[in-house]
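Deliverable D4.2, example record:
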Amino acid sequence: MAIDKEDEKRDVLKALYGYDEIYRKADINLEIIAKYGKVSKKIEEHIQSMKKK
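Output generated by the structure prediction step:
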């Protein structure tokens, strides 16, 4: 039974693709990388915009 949206998404993926723990852990790591990658990119953009001024 899905508890929240994330669990619901996982249940659907599990049903469709035989999604398991390994993929789930990989996804979580990718989400972290994507999140912090975006943050560092925003910082870089900010630095570039400050240099232009």
